[in-house]
Every structure is written in C-alpha cells, then in structure tokens.
Amino acid sequence: MTSVLDCSFCAALFLSHDKSGEVLRIFRTFDDSAEVLVPVCFWDEMTGLLSAALARGRLKHSDVLEIIRLLELYHFGTDVSFGADHTGRILDLSQLYNLRPPVAVYLELAVRKNAALGTLNGALRAACVKAGVELLRDSKAG
C-alpha cells in the first residue's frame, strides 16, 4: 500500500500529542515494501516545525539533529511534482475542500498516487473523507 504523510502526523512521533501512540503503531507497520511518500514541501515544513520547537524550548538542538537523522532512515519517497497542471490541481482541491494550498498539496499527492493519507490536521482529514481518500488508522485505535 502507498501512503502519504504530512508533518502533523510525523511530528507526533517526537512532540507530545494525544495521537502519538497511534502514530507510532502505524509507523511500526511500515516495512521495506511500504511506499511512503511526502511532497517536497514536507521537508521545509518540517524544518519550520523543528525550528519553532527549538525556539520554544520544546526540543534541544541535539534532539532536532537526531529527529532529522531518524526521519532520513525512513527513506520517504519525495515527490517533486510542480508546474501549471500540478498548481491547478492544488488550487482546485484547496477551493473545493476549503484548504490552504500548502495543506492541499498532501491531498493532491494522495489522490494522484491513490494512497492512504496520514494526517492529524482536522481540515485535511475532513477533506479526505469527502474526497474518498483513505486515512491511515491504527487498527487498535479504531
């Protein structure tokens, strides 16, 4: 199965969240045959998230370096789609589902790759339901 992950989902691995346990269990199901994709903007978004956690004292610099190293170990496939058609699809999805374009990027990738999406973003989860995109769920969590 192909999966697309967003930053909110991955951040629950290292920042306390009520869904952290569920996210960790889902990550443990990924094996070498799993295709896990992120859009190229994921890495910039993750940098911003880690920088903010560092500035707020939620993480130490050594923690951030370790998180980056661990994320690299997952060997996410980074989708680098761009151009007029890609931009048009993102714009259409953002307007159709009332999403900010940087959030709609994840939906666009999941739709295009017929992938399940891992997100903790409420608006994106609702858009997935409406668009018929499967959400990654922990079988123990329901």
What does this protein look like?
By secondary structure, the chain is an alpha/beta fold. It has a single domain, classed as 5'-nuclease (Rossmann fold), CATH 3.40.50. Helix content is 56%, strand content 11%. The chain has helices at 7-11, 20-29, 41-55, 61-73, 84-96, 101-113, 122-131, and strands at 2-5, 35-39, 77-79, 116-118. The chain has a four-stranded parallel beta sheet, sandwiched between helices. Helix 5 (84-96) crosses helix 6 (101-113) and helix 6 (101-113) packs parallel to helix 7.
Which key features would you list for this structure?
single chain, 142 residues, alpha/beta, Rossmann fold, 7 helices, 4 strands
Strand order of the largest sheet: 3-2-1-4
Q: Sum up the overall morphology in one term.
A: globular
CATH class: Alpha Beta
Mind summarizing the main beta sheet? 4 strands, parallel
Structural class: alpha/beta
> How many domain modules?
1
What's the number of extended β-strand segments? 4
Oligomer: single chain
Task: Specify Rg, calculated over alpha carbons.
Answer: 15 Å
